[in-house]
Design goal:
about 20% helix, OB fold (Dihydrolipoamide Acetyltransferase, E2P), about 40% strand
Length: about 190
């Protein structure tokens, strides 16, 4: 059975925790607005020679890639489907989708499930580098790309992580891209 002094110390420790939280809130409120800049979390990945940053809020899951079941009559960049916790998800070769010939092909055994509203699509990944927490001001705007290219608008900014530039993928734009949504009418 605990002695009274031990119990008193335990209670004092528990009571001191909310005070620390309140003090931190007060200190945060006193900081200038510039010091309280919004932070975003990203998962940084490699797909072939492409380096991408994907907002964690746009991800349903990342992990080891299950066996892909190929389906007939699909564009080459749709690798097939996988079963993730009883949900069937299409897996896309993102470099192939972009039509980036000359880039290394992705043969990785990792995946990221992108989501926007109720729509989900999986990307095959070579590597999951890790997560980063970056301020909005750390985004680097990219030079405008050819408006007719497939990737116009899918990546408009980037993040420097170490000495590498990771392109921030606009999941909303990717999942609503006409080539993805209606691949039968937009060409394979």
């Amino acid at each position: 059975m605990s002695s009274a002094p031990e119990l008193k110390n335990l209670i004092r420790h528990i009571d001191s925790q909310p005070v620390e939280v309140i003090d931190e809130e007060v200190m945060t409120a006193r900081q200038p607005a510039a010091d309280r800049e919004e932070m975003n979390r990203y998962v940084v990945v490699e797909i072939g020679a492409l380096h991408l940053a994907i907002a964690i809020d746009d991800l349903a899951e990342v992990g080891p890639l299950p066996t892909i079941t190929a389906l007939p009559n699909l564009p080459a960049w749709i690798l097939g489907i996988v079963n993730i916790r009883s949900e069937i998800v299409s897996i896309v070769d993102f470099v192939g989708f972009l039509g980036m010939s000359g880039r290394a092909i992705c043969n990785g055994n990792r995946f990221a499930i992108l989501r926007h509203k109720k729509q989900k699509i999986g990307l095959r990944l070579d590597r999951i580098i890790g997560t980063v927490n970056k301020a909005v001001s750390e985004k680097q705007l990219l030079e405008p790309v050819d408006r007719n290219s497939l990737h116009a608008g899918l990546v408009t900014s980037g993040l420097l992580v170490g000495k590498k530039l990771y392109y921030i993928l606009s999941v909303k734009r990717f999942l609503s891209a006409s080539r993805l949504v209606d691949y039968n009418n937009t060409g394979k």
